[in-house]
Specification:
The complex is a heterotrimer. Helices cover 51% and strands 10% of the residues of chain A. Chain A is built from 23 helices and 10 strands. In chain A, the strands form 2 sheets. Chain A has a 6-stranded parallel sheet with strand order 1-10-7-4-2-3, sandwiched between helices. A 4-stranded mixed sheet of chain A has the order 8-5-6-9. In chain A, helix 16 runs parallel beside helix 19 (375-388). Chain B is globular and about 75 Å long. Chain B has one domain (44-210): Rossmann fold (3-Layer(aba) Sandwich). In chain B, 49% of the residues are buried. By secondary structure, chain B is an alpha/beta fold. Chain C has 2 domains: 13-128, no CATH class; 137-249, Rossmann fold. Chain C is 49% helix and 14% strand. Chain C has helices at 20-24, 27-39, 55-60, 63-76, 88-101, 108-117, 121-128, 155-165, 187-190, 192-208, 219-231, 241-249, and strands spanning 13-16, 43-45, 83-85, 118-120, 137-145, 167-172, 213-216, 238-240. Chain C is globular. Chain C starts with 12 loop residues before the first strand and ends in a 6-residue tail after the last helix. The chains are: A alpha/beta, B alpha/beta, C alpha/beta. Chains in contact: A-B, A-C. Chains A and C meet through helix 1, helix 15, helix 18, helix 19 and helix 20 of A and helix 1, helix 2, helix 3, helix 4 and helix 5 of C.
């Protein structure tokens, strides 16, 4: 019988990969929880406030987007808008061409993954080099990230050492420190030779137009220290109302994502270099990207736009831990991806409509989310949407007959009595796939249909 | 892409129009995001040094100790912000040090250390705060293996919320909390990815204005 | 999944929602629930027309089918009395899930009203009735599984309060206690590989703590855990909290 694609994928995942994904997500999750509960009296209250801030921001984007645009312009940045992936890519290309630029260094940005910017630029004769260590390895391997924060969580050091050897970055050596040093030396000369630096944004303050960027490696800072032109690719949902909200969100982001009090490099970028400033990019472009976000905003799943891409929901998710990120067949894996990816897929929703099914609805994702997104509710809404759109769902038993039975008490009681039959039949013979799938791995308890009702009637009072 | 601007904004307005009410901006005290029981009653310099060490940074308060550290690591060639150099030069005198006051980006690998001014520091997180009006060159604070940020004792914020509140009109600011690091390869922590492998805060009692 | 706006308890009469699992498989859990409530001086009414809370179709995305069942449930549990259910999952369906799928329906207020009256058993005993002590004795080392659908509710704490109050009970912690057992309703049959892998991990952790019994407030989780352990040929004794409470009253030894 056919099961769900993610279950199939998990089945085929090499056990060593599963073990390493499991171990590192578990470790990060446990450290995250310890930090938050040791350090704050009411960590859940922080998550609630952060959720309210972000919900307010997305529900007032009609006010905040023009406001932030005006601030950015006043700060000296160029502001662009891109409805689609194609338009976002074309805008970047146009900016590069206008400067006669051919080489870009890129910091990690999920939006650029979404719009497949690096491929696009390469196709148009530009060099676009990933500088985050994990993303760099993904790029040289022509692979895809499998985790929002830890792109190569699915790879081991031996595979990476082989890739480095293949790419001429030194003879085989799988010591992580050596791998890192080699990337350091290779990439720093690339930064210095590049014409533009591209980053995403973790937050944009509507109050000041400040863009906030966090990295641990310092690669985004290097992009902006070595090049004279900064392009920031920003999803329209990244806006926060005020600067003061940044403190709360930064406190939550580092702890939730990587179990750090604060990420190593936190950049606040208020615009291109001023004359009085000795250093910094002279030109700054901000591209606000929609690429399906306004459709999400119009849907009953708009809460997902609060997401700050910390990856905590991936780390705690028992399904992600078993299946790893590629199972989700999209840029955003894990619980957040199971909501966001089908939504951003637009007309291709049916192709990803199985993702929201990949959850026992255990709610652990909601419990750790730094912006308190009720992910299980959104998964459920998307399941209902898939059903409404008649998307087939392998392995899911049909519910019509059950609903009929469960709304007719007499029939229900008869079924309780009749169910006794299953005790006398080998389950393999019962032509109910769901029952077979259950019985392949688990014993069914003995049928006791109607026994409680009998007891209740007949007991001595 | 002006057409895109109008299209996006109109879709945003369209998406929000059916909402009967919009989520309110919550009111909250910035204190909620401050770590409990950490700061009260503490000397901020001492706390900053303690927290900086916790994130893998080195905190020193004596330029002589800095020079000794650089010597011990055999980092004799480096860069120093010209504003700082007159005060630090005496400590480097009479040794094998070669210190430049202009940073030549064509020779990034020649610099074993870079000394720049920090605008401030944050005690709660052990963070140094660099801003672009006082950072002589961004690369010098990033490319050499050792970065030394000179912080004035009186420029230490107690917590992150305070530091955010003080962003003020410094338009380009970077916070550095420990050395550059990654755990991308099998979750193993490695320091010194693109930025410094050794991040040193030199806390001095010079007045911040004199830095 | 907070049931924060629920009606305070007045009177000592409740309607029992026995759950379809107890109706079909776990009659002793439903019986124990009745005995425990009656021990507390509560009169238990069992509406005969009850079937299921509607959750299977709700989780499966067939909200039209689910609403049909929920409407039946709303009619069946008419009245003002609290509805007590020995399952955190079915309780959450009544005060959270059903409300979600009725958001755009005209009769949403009827569903909300039932939700406000619905209590998970341990929550009802401890927070509804204010009972925090337990008489009798039960000599056993207990591993307690906080079922996922009681996240964000007071049920888990309430159950632990009651277990701690029973003389002879020793509650042991086990690894990754916050993780799901892998049941998840239809998830267990449409994702059999991941579901059983999750279950196996849970069993490993529980076995490492060497409890005499594995207890939960939800028989769905226990059906999965017990079924998996039995299939592995290493059965594990599973019980519902109500059974432990009842057996303690009778000072019955642990099995």
């Amino acid at each position: 019988m056919r099961f769900q694609p993610i279950d199939q994928f998990a089945k085929n995942l090499p056990p060593a990969t599963r073990a390493s994904v499991y171990q590192s997500t578990k470790t990060t999750h446990e450290k995250r929880t310890k930090l938050l509960f040791d350090q704050f009296a009411e960590p859940d209250r922080l998550r609630e406030i952060a959720g309210e801030i972000k919900q307010h921001a997305i529900e007032n984007l009609d006010t905040y987007l023009p406001q932030v645009e005006a601030k950015l312009k006043a700060n000296g940045a160029h502001v662009h808008w891109a409805s689609t992936a194609e338009s976002a890519c074309a805008t970047v290309l146009q900016i590069m061409r206008a400067r006669g630029a051919t080489k870009m260094v890129k910091a990690k940005t999920m939006v650029s993954e979404e719009i497949e910017l690096a491929h696009y630029l390469e196709k148009h004769g530009m060099e676009a080099l990933e500088t985050d260590l994990g993303e760099f390895i993904i790029q040289i391997d022509h692979d895809h990230p499998s985790h929002i924060v830890r792109p190569i969580i699915h790879k081991n050091r031996r595979e990476i050492a082989q890739s480095f050897e293949r790419e001429g970055l030194g003879s085989y050596n799988d010591d992580p420190a050596t791998i890192t040093q080699r990337a350091r030396h290779f990439l720093r000369h690339k930064y210095l030779a590049a014409d533009v630096g591209l980053t995403g944004a973790n937050f944009v303050s509507a109050e000041s137009g400040r863009i906030v960027l966090v990295t641990n490696e310092g690669n985004s800072r290097f992009c902006l220290a070595a090049t004279k032109c900064h392009i920031a690719l920003i999803g329209i949902e990244k806006i926060v109302p005020r600067d003061r909200d940044l403190a709360l969100l930064l406190n939550l982001l580092g702890r939730s994502g990587t179990a750090q009090d604060l990420t190593v490099y936190t950049e606040f970028i208020g615009g291109p270099k001023l004359p009085a400033q000795p250093d910094g990019p002279e030109e700054m472009h901000v591209i606000f990207v929609d690429n399906g976000r306004t459709e999400v905003l119009a849907s009953d799943c708009r809460e997902i736009l609060r997401c700050i891409r910390c990856g905590a929901c991936l780390n705690v998710c028992p399904v992600y831990r078993q299946a790893s990120g590629h199972a989700y067949r999209s840029v955003y894996p894990g619980p957040v991806g199971a909501v966001l990816s089908p939504l951003l897929a637009g007309e291709k929703f049916p192709q990803l409509a199985d993702l929201p099914k990949a959850s026992s609805l255990c709610g652990a994702c909601h419990e750790v989310c730094p912006v308190n997104i009720p992910i299980p509710d959104l998964l459920l809404r998307l399941r209902a949407r898939a059903k409404d759109e008649n998307v087939p769902s392998p392995g899911t038993p049909p519910m019509g007959a059950w609903a009929l039975l469960a709304s007719q008490p007499t029939a229900w009681r008869a079924a309780l009595a009749g169910g006794k039959l299953i005790d006398y039949l080998p389950t393999k013979l019962i032509p109910v796939p769901a029952l077979q799938a259950w019985a392949a791995k688990r014993e069914l308890p003995a049928w006791r249909g109607g026994e409680f009702r009998k007891w209740l009637k007949n007991r001595p009072r | 892409m002006n057409d895109d601007r109008e299209a996006i904004l109109s879709r945003v307005r369209g998406a929000l129009a059916p909402l009967r009410e919009r989520a309110a901006l919550p009111t909250y005290d910035s204190e909620v995001a401050v770590m409990r029981g950490l700061i009260a009653g503490r000397d901020l310099v001492e706390l900053f040094c303690e927290r900086a060490r916790r994130v893998g940074a080195v905190a020193l308060s004596d330029p002589a100790a800095l020079v000794a550290r650089l010597r011990a690591e055999s980092r004799f060639r480096g860069y120093c912000d010209p504003v700082l150099w007159p005060r630090l030069a005496p400590y480097f005198a009479g040794g094998d040090f070669q210190v430049e006051v202009t940073f030549d980006r064509t020779r990034v690998d020649d610099y074993g250390f870079g000394i720049t001014r920090a605008a401030a520091a944050i005690a709660e997180s052990g963070t140094i705060v660099l801003n672009d009006t006082t950072t002589s060159t961004r690369l010098a604070a990033l490319a050499p293996w050792v970065h030394v940020a000179v912080v004035a004792r009186d420029a230490i914020f107690s917590d992150i919320s305070q530091a955010v509140a003080a962003l003020g009109h410094d338009r380009n600011v970077v916070w550095c909390t420990g050395p550059s690091k990654t755990a991308d390869v099998e979750g193993i922590l490695i320091e010194g990815v693109h930025g410094p492998g050794t991040q040193i805060a030199l806390v001095v009692d010079w007045e911040s204005s004199g830095l | 999944m907070l049931n924060s706006e629920r009606k305070p308890i007045t009177g000592k009469r409740v309607q029992l929602m026995a759950t379809c699992l107890c109706d079909a498989f776990y009659d002793d859990v439903a019986a124990a629930t009745v005995e425990v409530l009656e021990h507390l001086g509560v009169e238990v009414v069992f509406p005969e027309g009850q079937t299921c809370c509607g959750q299977p179709a709700f989780n499966g995305g067939d909200w039209a089918a689910s609403r049909k069942v929920v409407r039946h449930t709303v009619r069946t549990f008419a009245g003002e009395e609290p509805v007590v259910v020995p399952s955190g999952s079915c309780a959450a369906m009544m005060f959270h899930g059903a409300v979600l799928e009725f958001e755009k329906e005209r009769d949403v207020s009827d569903v909300e009203a039932l939700g406000r009256r619905t209590w998970e058993l341990a929550d009802f005993i401890v927070n509804g009735l204010g009972v925090k002590t337990w008489s009798g004795r039960y000599d056993a080392t207990v591993a307690f599984h906080r079922s996922c659908h009681s996240r964000g509710t007071q049920s888990g704490e309430a159950a632990l309060t009651l277990l701690a109050a029973i003389a002879g009970v020793k509650v042991v912690e086990f690894g990754e206690g916050e993780q799901c057992c892998g049941f998840g309703g239809t998830f267990s049959v449409s994702f059999p590989g991941i579901s059983t892998a999750m279950g196996a991990l849970k069993l490993d952790h529980v076995r490492a703590a060497r409890p005499d019994v594995f207890v939960s407030g939800d028989m769905s989780c226990m059906m999965h855990m017990g079924g998996l352990a039995a299939k592995e040929g290493k059965p594990i004794k599973t019980l519902h909290l109500a059974q432990v409470l009842r057996d303690a009253l009778k000072s019955k030894a642990a099995p």
